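name: query_chain
kind: protein
chains: 1
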Amino acid sequence: MLYITESQAKSAITLKSSLSVFRQAYLQCNSKHLSTGPRMVQTLDALGNKGQWLTASYPAEGMFGTKFSAIFPHNVEKGLSVVNSTISLYSGKTGELLATVEANALTAMKTAGSAAIATDLMSRKDSGTLAIIGSGLQAFDQVLAIREVRDIRTVIVYNRSAEGAKTFANRLKDVEGFDAEVKIVESADAAVAGADIVCTCTTSSTPVFRGASLRPGTHINAIGSYAPDMQEIDENTVVRAARIVTEHVDGLWAAAGDILEPFNRGVIDKSKVDGSVGDVLAGTVAGREAADAITLYESVGSAALDLAIAVEVYRLVSRSGKDGATV
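structure:
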């Protein structure tokens, strides 16, 4: 059994090269060669800490796997990671454990890569201003991934902690070749009001900006809400969206508080969600049909994408013959 650490996983694959892995994974999902299983989220205590279990099967690669994430929102106050994840890979022939992969970096890469693909399919081609709400690991990779698909000239940052926003901005400026202007604003509404693309990267249970602040033609990547009781974007945003896609439609209706809240109130029906990113890639669902349309990618996580990137890392590490530890 191979144990792959965070640093080994990060050195095995780049964010740019991962995009082709995720595109292929979406198409494999559409052709039923890659599939997800049940999701389980368990609240662990009164503080709102949660455990999340995801499963997926990849017959085309002869593997299946599980991903476990511990979500502890108050870790931010301790200077610790809010989310800690591992992926376990098993043989589809024998059921044997093949590898355990530390997956914080891969999760951020997966989430950012999927959002970048959705952005490429749904945002205006001339989009040049990106608003980021939140300043954690997910937010950082969102910026880098979206710059792979759009010519981002300005990044607008909002974070509840002004110091956190400054640190985030400085991290971006330290990235080799990063030439976009970075602006820090004092409210989320100010951030989205000037943006072509908006990414919400928080663990908030209540909406972080007002949908009325969005200007026509904006594309939103909502990646923070992963449970029915979380609502990172407001009802107005959902109603205004002309197109809504997600990783897997069934998974959205099981977990996306952003969409479930207005649905449960009767404001929208299930026809409001148009399909998956894979459907847009396959050409069965349109991405953007009008320049002034508001589009929304609602992310709740995909074990299929987690499995696909972990399988690729496992393959690359195994081939290298030097990284990873056999235990």
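note: The first helix runs from residue 6 to 12.
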